[in-house]
Amino acid sequence: MNNLFPNLESAQAPVVVRGLHKSFGDNEVLKGIDLTVEQGEVVCVIGPSGSGKSTLLRCLNLLEQPTKGSIQLLGAEMTDPDVELNQVRTHVGMVFQSFNLFPNMTAIGNCVIAQRQVLKRSKAEAVEIAKKNLELVGLSDRMDYYPAKLSGGQQQRVAIARALSMDPRVMLFDEPTAALDPELVGDVLAVMRDLAQAGMTMVVVTHEMLFARDVSDRTVFMDGGVIVEQGPSRDLITNPGHERTLIFLKRVLNPTNVDDSELGETEPD
Predict the structure, then answer these.
(1) Which is it for the CA torsion 190, 87, 120, 145, positive or negative?
(2) pLDDT class of 43 with cuts at 50, 70, 90
(3) Is 262's pLDDT higher than 90?
(4) From residue 179, how far is each of 18, 30, 44, 108, 190 by CA, in Å?
(5) CB–CB of 47/226 below 8 Å?
(6) Contact indicator for 79, 60 with CB cutoff of 8 Å
(7) pLDDT tens digits for range 68-122
């Protein structure tokens, strides 16, 4: 797949985060995050459970309300009370750990409904676009299946097709393979790899280190609500510059050789 998104503007970075803080009561989960994602860039966010990765992702499109800081998404200031939040969200696809499919709708029905209700597309146009995206994720033979008849990996690919059917400018993935059996992970990562190669701007929270190393342009390592280090993915994952990153990577790449006590305390995501 090449050049699937030829109309994306490149003048402004689609994701710009400055001084982002997020607290839940007295628990400060994000402690001043600065992050820029350029057009067409794939950024993986890694780190131990409780490091703030998912909270960061959910703050980007205001599924969580930031405590302090600035988030510019596709040029819109998301923390501005006057921002057209729903309008911005129509251009941002999000894929969760849980697939969040409507159980009473077929795969194609799940991909059509938001197009009809939000984008106001005709039924014929919405169905055509849904079919294209289900074919894109390798499910052209499962369009009329209900979620209960699909494997977890197939359901997650439907969720990706549903997000793509909204013509997103940015895709956010929150641990998209975490709920899958190991043998099903590869099919989902292959779809994401194709999207990356096609030029989709992506922010991916993941524990899939080989995917981060081989597919993403940049990897961000978070711990304790801060960005410890970031850099070109292959460099960071094969030769991290920070001791904390090295300990984490040892644990996830070769878990039998690392004592969990080395990892210190973490905070809830």
Answers:
(1) positive
(2) very high
(3) no
(4) 31, 25, 18, 22, 16
(5) no
(6) no
(7) 999 999 999 999 999 999 899 999 999 998 889 999 999 999 999 999 999 999 9
